[in-house]
Design a protein that fits this description.
The chain contains nine helices and five strands; from the N terminus they run H-H-H-H-E-H-E-H-E-H-E-H-E-H. The chain has 213 residues and is of the alpha/beta class. Strand 4, helix 8 (183-189) and strand 5 (193-195) form a beta-alpha-beta unit. The protein folds into two domains: 2-77, Orthogonal Bundle (Methyltransferase, Methionine Synthase (B12-binding Domains), Chain A, domain 1); 89-212, Cobalamin-binding domain (Rossmann fold). The structure holds cobalamin. The site of cobalamin has 40 residues, from helix 3, helix 4, helix 5, strand 3 and strand 4.
């Protein structure tokens, strides 16, 4: 799908959507198409770092990915997992304080949902205190923190600290995700796992629910 990656990276919005439709019609797995977008957004991010692209390109890239997600969503709801309506666990999700990136978070929402989780999505720029309030009300099995800025690690850590303060840390798994996270960030935040793709995140979540059963 190099043509799709190129169309997104070169800001050719109409071509990108036409190719997305073409690949969906051909029966290409939706996750593969989303991953092509993710790769393209990685290129956009790199060009931004290099001073070739600026914030408007970041915005347009984000809009392209959102438009593609809307096209792809119905194909995913058909579900490869067949998890259907039976809920297997509760997943509290949000992008942490100071960070407004939500494309990856929305993909996580969609994938957790079709894999049988009841998802409560708190949106973006969510303060630690709000995560803890929602924890008390929703009683999730897993808390998922999204953050794409390196600055977000402190906000993620604040959520874990807050969960400790209310005596909930040992009762809940915490997973962090976003393009920049790594083992180092995971240790700093004191999360249980870190991922840079939603599919691996779903695998962790399913494993945790299995070992709880
Ligand atoms: C699009 C974009 C934007 C858009 C966001 C639109 C939106 N609605 O989200 C806009 C224009 C708003 C934006 C703004 C900014 N951005 Co920006 N942005 C990007 C870009 C190009 C793509 C991000 C993206 O959506 N990727 C595609 C998704 C699908 O991938 P993903 O988020 O990684 O998510 C996947 C996984 O990580 C995982 N995942 C994500 N979250 C979670 C959570 C859980 C629980 C789990 C299990 C998994 C998981 O699953 C997803 C699917 O596989 C990245 C570059 C990049 N390589 O990421 C820069 C990037 C993240 N931005 C960057 C910067 C600097 C900014 C700004 C500061 C720019 C500015 N000067 O204003 C602002 C910050 C605003 C803020 N306070 O948050 C930097 C961050 C650098 C850093 N190390 O901190 C990046 C890396 C670009 C770069 N290379 O410099 N940005």
């Amino acid at each position: 799908m190099q043509d799709l990656v190129n169309a997104v990276a070169e800001m050719m919005e109409d071509d990108a959507l036409a190719l997305t439709r073409k690949y969906l019609d051909q029966g290409i797995p939706p996750v593969d198409i989303l991953n092509a977008y993710k790769d393209a957004l990685g290129i956009v991010g790199k060009r931004f770092e290099e001073g070739i692209y600026f914030v408007p390109e970041l915005i347009l890239a984000g809009e392209m990915m959102k438009a593609a997600s809307e096209l792809i969503k119905p194909h995913m709801a058909a579900g490869e997992t067949g998890a259907g309506s039976k809920k297997i666990g509760k997943f509290l999700l949000g992008t942490v304080e100071g960070d407004i990136h939500d494309i990856g978070k929305d993909m996580v929402h969609m994938l957790m949902d079709i894999n049988g989780f009841e998802v409560r999505d708190l949106g973006v720029d969510v303060p630690a205190k709000r995560f803890c309030e929602e924890y008390k009300d929703f009683q999730p099995d897993i808390v998922g923190l999204s953050g794409l800025l390196t600055l977000s690690y402190d906000s993620m850590k604040a959520v874990v600290d807050c969960l400790k303060e209310i005596g909930a840390r040992h009762k809940v798994k915490v997973i962090i995700g976003g393009g920049q996270v790594d083992e180092h960030a995971c240790k700093y935040v004191e999360a249980d796992a870190w991922v840079t793709d939603a599919v691996t995140g779903v695998k962790y979540a399913l494993q945790w629910m299995e070992s709880k059963a």
